[in-house]
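A sample copied in:

***
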Amino acid sequence: MADTKSLKKYYKKQVDLFSMVKKMNLWPSRTGILHGVRSFVENGDFAEITTHCNRTFIVKNSRNSRAARWLRNKWFRAPCPKCDIPQWKLEKYALTYFHKRKGVRMKT
């Protein structure tokens, strides 16, 4: 198996929330539950996110929002049992880092 260092991915820190959600397909709810994103419909500065457990969120695009900080810093209490996020996706998410000066820009 490959080294952990070779699997690490670095992205620029100041990324739009929509770019992160589209790339990762994960959404942290306010209660700390990490949901898998089923559909993402963008409408200007707002978007409608539907998760695999059929919850719908209307969110605003922001770099400094709670959700953007939680995704960048990998803060969550537990993955949603109804969304059934695969273990490989959680491991890949754990190896994703955001750095101010180092890394590539996140493209959707």
User: Anything to note?
Assistant: The longest strand covers residues 33-43.
